[in-house]
């Protein structure tokens, strides 16, 4: 039996009530890929804008008086660039995917995208947040000194409280939703593949 069972071939042989709707599965997978792609494009656009601002700020007409400000700015830029490089690798798969290939190849394609996105949303994002927190904390030293002890402390408390909220709540919540979205589509596509394989054995 050939391992390349066509997505639509032999499908009509099954009971309509016993099979997932292929068109619906394809439609949902395309919608999810488009949604993921648009979010990444928006995030990347914002990061490019912020990175440009930092570069102009640090190396333009303004010269920070303390080394911590420059180090903090550079760390922040490094975090932005690292995230952009990794996430752009995911964008390539989201743009070039085709659902017209056989179902096994398409399932493999979706699993690859899911794996890459989980890498971006977990390890890469967490590393980015750590780098960003350290970078911004160093960057703020020069300015919080001028604010005084009380307001400077308030500024740092707000910064680290927000970063902790993102790191420990928003990121895990986003990852759980991501896994649930992909799992539903992949499970249905896997069911289709299993049923097509059974039909192939009966041929």
Oligomer: single chain
- Main pleated-sheet profile: none
How much strand content do the residues show? under 5%
Could you say which overall geometry the principal axes of the C-alpha atoms support? elongated
Rg result: 24 Å
Query: What structural category characterises the helix and strand content?
Result: mainly alpha
Average predicted local confidence, pLDDT: 78
The level of helicity is over 70%
Structure overview:
This protein is an all-alpha fold and 203 residues long. The chain has one domain. Helix 1 runs antiparallel to helix 2, helix 2 packs antiparallel against helix 3 and helix 3 runs antiparallel to helix 4. The radius of gyration is 24 Å and the shape is elongated. About 2% of the residues have low confidence.
Could you outline the blueprint of secondary structure elements for this entry?
Elements: H1 22-59, H2 67-96, H3 103-147, H4 149-202
Helix pairs in contact: 1-2, 1-4, 2-3, 3-4
Transmembrane segments: 40-62, 74-95, 124-143, 149-170
Protein name: Flp pilus assembly protein TadB
Organism: Mucilaginibacter lappiensis
């Amino acid at each position: 039996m050939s391992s390349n069972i066509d997505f639509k071939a032999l499908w009509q042989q099954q009971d309509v009530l016993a099979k997932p709707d292929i068109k619906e599965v394809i439609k949902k997978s395309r919608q999810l890929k488009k949604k993921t792609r648009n979010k990444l494009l928006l995030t990347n656009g914002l990061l490019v804008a912020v990175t440009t601002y930092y570069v102009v700020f640090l190396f333009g007409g303004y010269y920070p008086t303390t080394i911590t400000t420059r180090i903090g700015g550079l760390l922040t830029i490094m975090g932005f660039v690292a995230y952009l490089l990794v996430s752009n690798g995911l964008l390539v798969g989201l743009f070039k995917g085709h659902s017209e290939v056989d179902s096994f190849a398409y399932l493999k394609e979706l699993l690859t995208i899911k794996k890459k996105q989980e890498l971006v949303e977990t390890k890469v994002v967490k590393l980015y947040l750590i780098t960003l927190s350290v970078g911004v904390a160093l960057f703020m030293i020069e300015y919080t000194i001028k604010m005084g002890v009380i307001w400077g402390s308030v500024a740092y408390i707000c910064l680290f409280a927000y970063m902790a909220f993102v790191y420990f709540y928003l990121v895990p919540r986003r990852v759980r939703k991501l896994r649930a979205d992909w799992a539903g589509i992949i499970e249905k596509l896997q069911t289709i593949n299993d049923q097509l394989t059974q039909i192939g054995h009966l041929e």
